[in-house]
């Protein structure tokens, strides 16, 4: 018989999701028989018995779901770590399941959509990271969303990238610089090189301002509070006198002389 580990409910809450040791997923419909089995008194009796040791299985699973380790909880509670690990298994499987779902989330890129896990693996491979060292994990936040992480080992000591994963919307949002860098395809081959290369100047486009036609700013000295400057006014130049007309007028013809002749 294959042993299955409960990892959570489906998105529509109509099925229970289980996982085997190989990572295979199984779904069981939540019917009346399952509900009656879950609501038996056996669970309550086990919880009551274990609570006498100082920490209940519910508290153990809640803290591990939030990212704490079994060793840290055992050390704080003063109990043997094996007792904590008895209840940690299902929650660790749930965390692994949510990390897997997040890595299968589609993210938009300029050339189309790609899975987050494939994008992260490709970026880290371009950086020279051994992708076999990648470890995906997750823990639940107080707002019911999950923080999903991927860590890796490298010659410089390794790294960690984090996202917020919303299971209902099936979306991820980068939480830190490493996660944002993994979203940037162009940085794949240049992120390490930026440490030694001198920064290069960039050309920045300036907005084009169209100048209004025939509109000139008034000079500063013509504004209020400034002394005025005399402006030479255009001087009317008299038109040159027309040449005297030597043709005889009617006076010359009738009286034999011009009126101005004395």
TrEMBL record:
Residue ranges, annotated region (Disordered): 189-262
InterPro entries in alphabetical order: DUF3071 (IPR021421), SepH-like (IPR047682)
Compositional bias of kind Basic and acidic residues: 191-201
Pro residues bias locations: 227-237
Compositional bias (Low complexity): 238-247
Short name of one Pfam family: DUF3071
Residue intervals of the DUF3071 domain: 1-165
Protein name: Unannotated protein
Source organism (scientific name): freshwater metagenome
